[in-house]
């Protein structure tokens, strides 16, 4: 059946097999391991980033932006394949919640008792031990501390600082819902009416030209505006995928732009353009011989979930150099990520399939880029992390 512009729809049965090389899955796992490298700096008290200073911090913000752009791209694709509201939200929540609940329970009942400075009675008798579970499951608001856990680390209190981004991810899901229900995906130019205001508000606030509260929707205002703008541009990238020329020279141009504009406020605007283009190009054009095997890339979400507590534990054991935390943290996080996939996440996806299995409406399907290598579970979007020091109160870390 013809789609937008008379193009022929591609049957879901013609999707790439799950074992096909997956550039996006590779990109997610590489960036997830790179996040561990970025976090190793503040976790060991090295805020200079091996001499890279502000550019090292910029690297951290770019990884967040990359994950948001990929999520916007693929989640919009999911909506267009089956724009049923209940099935859409069932798919999204069953992707992130099983793994999230598992890491929360491991943190409370395994990690916490092992490293806390409190006695077992004091630890389990503290209300914050139990509020850590329900606050982080509900996401709004989150809690980062457990009683007596990591209080003497160089990056104190935060058990899992990476979880800050999951509320933004869920708001991105809501943004896709708005786009779908209002039919913006069928009038794709309207997507910029969502993306541009986020970016404009951020630039005006950063430059002191507008007053906004420090928090909005129980999240810090600056990262909320920035990453929702990038998420919206990820959606736009999907909607305009047939119009975007993909080139490695374009990727190099994006890298050059980001290097030279940072740390000026202009970077907050350029990042919403350069990052979605770069991740789409790399994920699409990455040679198969550079793609990691799918049995490994399925660990990407687990690496995100367990990377931060693994690094904090390594620092608690005495590691005080970034290379020590990275060298030990990456392989341990990979093993835990694989365990998360095989023991928890894939079973959540099976339940998701059982609950949402149905034939999408033919008119909802749109052509995919032939070169984009999509696989099954390994290409599920990966959430993101935050680079800041958390407050002892358990509120989200300050920027």
Structure notes:
By secondary structure, this protein is mainly α. Helices cover 59% and strands 1% of the residues. The chain contains 13 helices and two strands. A two-stranded antiparallel sheet has the order 1-2. Strand 1 (215-216) and strand 2 (219-220) form a beta hairpin. Helix 8 (221-239) crosses helix 10.
Q: How far is the N terminus from the C terminus?
A: 49 Å
Name the strands of the widest sheet in spatial order: 1-2
* SSE series: HHHHHHHEEHHHHHH
Roughly what percent helix? 55-70%
SSE-based structural type: mainly alpha
Overall outline: globular
**Tally of domains:** 1
Beta-strand residue fraction: under 5%
Overall number of strands: 2
Q: Regions with pLDDT < 50 over 5+ consecutive residues?
A: 1-17, 362-399
- What's the tally of helices? 13
Mean pLDDT: 83
For the report, how would you describe the main beta sheet? 2 strands, antiparallel
Oligomer: single chain
Tell me the radius of gyration: 21 Å
What does this entry show, briefly?
The chain has helices at residues 23-43, 54-81, 85-115, 120-125, 127-138, 166-181, 192-206, 221-239, 248-261, 267-285, 294-297, 300-316, 322-356, and strands spanning 215-216, 219-220. With 399 residues, the chain is mainly α.
Keywords:
1% strand; 2 strands; 399 residues; mainly alpha; globular; single chain; two-stranded antiparallel ribbon; disordered C terminus; 13 helices
Topology:
Layout: H1 23-43, H2 54-81, H3 85-115, H4 120-125, H5 127-138, H6 166-181, H7 192-206, E1 215-216, E2 219-220, H8 221-239, H9 248-261, H10 267-285, H11 294-297, H12 300-316, H13 322-356
Antiparallel strand pairs: 1-2
Helix pairs in contact: 1-2, 1-10, 1-12, 1-13, 2-6, 2-8, 2-10, 3-5, 3-12, 3-13, 6-8, 7-8, 8-10, 9-10, 12-13
